[in-house]
Records
---
Amino acid sequence: MKQIKKIGIITGGGDCSGLNAVINGITKTAINTYGLEVIGYRRGYFGLYHNDFQVLDLKAVSGIMHEGGTILKASNKDNLFSYPFEKEDGSYDYKDVSDVAVENMKKEGVDALIVIGGDGTLTSARDFHRKGIPVIGVPKTIDNDLPATDVTFGYNTSLETITDALDKIHTTAYSHDRIMVVEVMGRNTGWLALEGGIAGSADVILLPEIPYSIDKIVDKIRDRDRHGKSFAIIVVSEGAKPKDGEVHVREIVKDSADNIRLGGIGDVVTRQLQALIDNHEVRYTNLAYIQRGGIASQFDRMIGLRFGVEAVELLMDGGTGQMVRCRGREISYVPLEEVVGSGSTGETSHGGAKYVDPKGQMVKAAKAIGISFGD
Ligand code: F6P
């Protein structure tokens, strides 16, 4: 393999806290340990296609580790192997423009890519690897739905945000004897709702993995009333669905590879409950993008930083077409071919995602302390 002297970083998919820690780890290791040059493409693969980048030196990454989002900006729409060109009638033609990206890399002398993203972004990383470009992937998601790694950055900060929000929402729930419905993200998996809900003392948690019945939620509220608890917190995962029902689709994003966006089921549950309950007001809060933003937790800074450092080490060791991941407390790696394209890394969680086990220890613990899943 050609000697690597210059690397390009890409951040694709939805943003989350910890991305800047990864950029920090990659850039400092590349410069301090290996004397490499580093650039960051702006707005994910869009930047690679348009040759829009910024030089990353030690000054550029100084003081960014804790900051949320990505200094490089992100996009979850630009698949260069199937790039959308809008036609006059509003529909799209899809073309493979990956050769333009390879030419841009040659022009700038970029020898390798480190790509940080979920399934869509890492599937393209795999495809660049197949084209002969040295590539290392770094997995990213707040949803915790990646089977290939025990943890990733972003999830822990989101859980802290959800827990803090539930603590605050408790105040109004208690003071006004209200039923407070709180919707959280997670796509088709319920990890954020489950772990955030337990830590935030939810009374009911609705998960995609455990279809609910509205009557069971009402039973729980009545039961609390009987025990002198005249309020309740109900955490609803955006992918939750009723028994014999479907998920609530918020939006179809036309030019996105994974085009389904969930959301709004919390509002539906709120209106259904208000129709069935006359001794409490029912209120709805959607935590939405608050869960993706803000200062990264200590955990996410550490795991992000370590992923970044190990991605460079792996690349300089001759690795390509691999993704770094965490098993136990150790960072190891796995071929991209084994983990992408099935929706298993985060952006598209239809296929082999890591789901909550309805009979697992965490659900058991929640039930043991009286939390209802509406089942
Ligand atoms: O995968 C991360 C995530 O925040 C999901 O939890 C959520 O469903 C989705 O992204 C939202 O995507 P968008 O930013 O396109 O609305």
---
Amino acid sequence: MNKLLSCGIVAAAGLAFTVSSACASGSDLQAIMKARGLTEKDILAAAKTYQPSGKKDDYIVFSSGGQSGQVMVYGVPSMRIYKYIGVFTPEPWQGYGYDEESKAILKSGAIRGKQITWGDTHHPALTEKNGEYVGDYLFINDKANPRIAVINLHDFETTQIVVNPIMKSEHGGSFITPNSEYVIEAAQYAAPLDNGYHSMDEYEAVFRGAVTFWKFDYPKGKIDEKASFSLELPPYWQDLSDAGKGESFGWAFTNSINSEMYTGGIEKGLPPFEAGASRNDTDYLHVYNWQILEKLAQDKKNYMEINGHRVVTIDAAVKAGALFLIPEPKSPHGVDVTPDGRYIVIGGKLDTHATVYDFKKIKNLIDKKEFAGTDPYGIPVLDMAKSLQGQVELGLGPLHNSFDEKDGIIYTSLYVDSQIVKWDYKNLKVLDRINVHYNIGHLDTMEGKSSKPKGKYAIALDKLSIDRFNPVGPLHPQNHQLIDIAGAKMELLYDMPIPLGEPHDVVSIAASKLKPATTYTMGTNSRTGKESPFVTLAGQERVERNGKNVTVYATMIRSHINPEHIEVNKGDNVTIHLTNLERAQDETHGFTVDLYNIHASLEPGKTATVNFVADEEGVFPYYCTEFCSALHLEMMGYLLVKDPNKKYESAKASKLKTLSPEALKAEYDKVIATNKATDEVIQSVVTYLKEKHYEKYPKVKELVTDALDQYGKIPEVKAKADEAYKKGDVNGAILWEYQVWQYMVKTADVGLRAKNNLAKEIATPMSPAAAKGEEAYLKGGCNGCHVIGQVSSGPDLTGVLLRHENGEKWVFDFIKDPAKFYNDEYVKSMIDFFNLRMPNQHMSDQEIKDIIEYLKWIDENAGM
Ligand code: CUK
Ligand code: CUA
């Protein structure tokens, strides 16, 4: 790559290098590329994915965590992982499964009384409006133990788990109807819908498939189990599903993979499932109408009640014209409805084709009651050929689909060929293909399964990584590959090892559609979203005893837990309600007690509860588990568990020498002086804040309230110090004065943050010219050498216009042609000092004028 090109690429990509530095040291980039064996293409890929510090991602991806039972959150294009959300599996960092509020959620996922602490998550889905994604709630299914979880994207916490009352395994969940009316969950392996024993001989008579419609109560953010119902289906193994939209609104589609109803028996010498279940050339695509079914579910004569749940019968559905079958190439995999709802695309898996059904044709056949026959359960079967738009040969193992922003463009994963194929489902033409590494399952384009796909990037969810990463033992990470799909040819950008389960599927959403909270309203139970009845404010800390039940109401704020001693008897049932009193974002405290297997994460404003039976005698430190301040290690206390049946010797007196009265007095004077000096800093900040009317800026006001809150605690503590001193208890006075200092430090900490924010808020608004100037300044890469307000690899530009006589003209001429000034005394001294020359950035006259306006603005606001 030549030098000019490298400068151009680097500048366009906004890498940390600037044009000036890259050009001045272009050989460095060349050298790095050479040393690391990087091609020009690699550098381009890096430029498309690299996020400089502080820069945020355009898309947020929610990935199933597979067997980890969690959900993973990462960003595109950076592929940086942001969070693992505990869903079906305990997640210690978030206290999920270790505090009482979250244990209640996990407990609601118990099946037939059995607590299940893992899950096999497959398909995440977002709430939708008109088929477009809305960043309010996320749903995910558990294939192993048929369950659906709701995650509130207000705080990215799991708030509900519902257990499927009739299925014994599932796969086709979660799929959302276009206005989030229902969360659809389709079964996988057919089984009796009741919980009893049935022999395999009863397969056709008693084993059943099903699809469940979970009613989503949007205002409550909860699945309404009572309002939910299911549809009985034949014991064909139902599989992936998708809800219709647009033209096909009201309908939904589910694949199947064992319409042979083969029952296996390899151990008896029978052919295995894999042979018997793929015997026929075709399986069935289930086509059903949830709008008709929800009406049927209102009338007792249409449904059976199983485990307290309404199951609309096959017969009732058939009679009402709500259920049909269409043959599909055998053992298919994904089924995806196109953004406009017109077509349904099915990945062949064992067939090299993708099959495109035309809903218009399907609807036409249904309306005319033109059926090719019925299946053994009496369900009308439509003619496959008459339902088709067509088929396209894609390659080996087509699985899943995702759509492009451009009409008619679809991307399909090929598992066996390890490829993504880009093709046109309207004109049935293959357009491009790209190799992935290796054995791709799902793929996702940005918002790719919504009614308004954004395209731009595709993510390949590769099952095998084989040789792509440094080996970490026989269990390999999976590989999520980011692919640029904006151009005619797909281009591979990035490989991300996935260290968490087998993430079958992801769903992506524009980051701007997510509006998560940064703190909680004081006293929130995050799992209910409501105020906790156990919220404890400052001054309300207490320990209540009721027989063997000890209830502690505790608070946490930098940097103490109140109370600091909890004394109980062996065998007591101890409940500790904790409230984090912080209001500043990212000031999380954690809580644990040695030995008792509990942990809570208390984000600002949260109230959470831990509970344990103190069945071991002893002394157990408890502490804050988040490094929350310089005095985080001091944020602790002791749980003292006494055996009520034992007699303890009286306390042993300390034999350590104490300080002399003179030394004590000296220490006292020192702490008084420190406090006075600290208070002066606080007063100067407070004066600044008041002068500048901080109360007009909500964000700043929040911080000031927080700071004054801390400051307000000082008089009480100071009074204690003075009283101790008066009584001659100098040691006590010193300790209280230290506490005064603690409050001052916290006040100063938050106060200074408020001051910085305020300074930013009240900076005079930039004129359009100055704003353009800033843009030119940044585009030109001037910030590579000049940092405003600071000497960096070039001089600070604050006041530059005042440094020279006729400053504006001087700066203009200098930017225009720096070389002319290289022998100027002042410039020469600068060149010597920084060991760098100001390069000619070839700015236009207008750009230079704008930059001068920008520099003026900098000077006006220099005092901030
Ligand atoms: S399934 Cu795993 S690759 Cu569960 Cu969506 Cu296709
Ligand atoms: Cu609070 Cu560490």
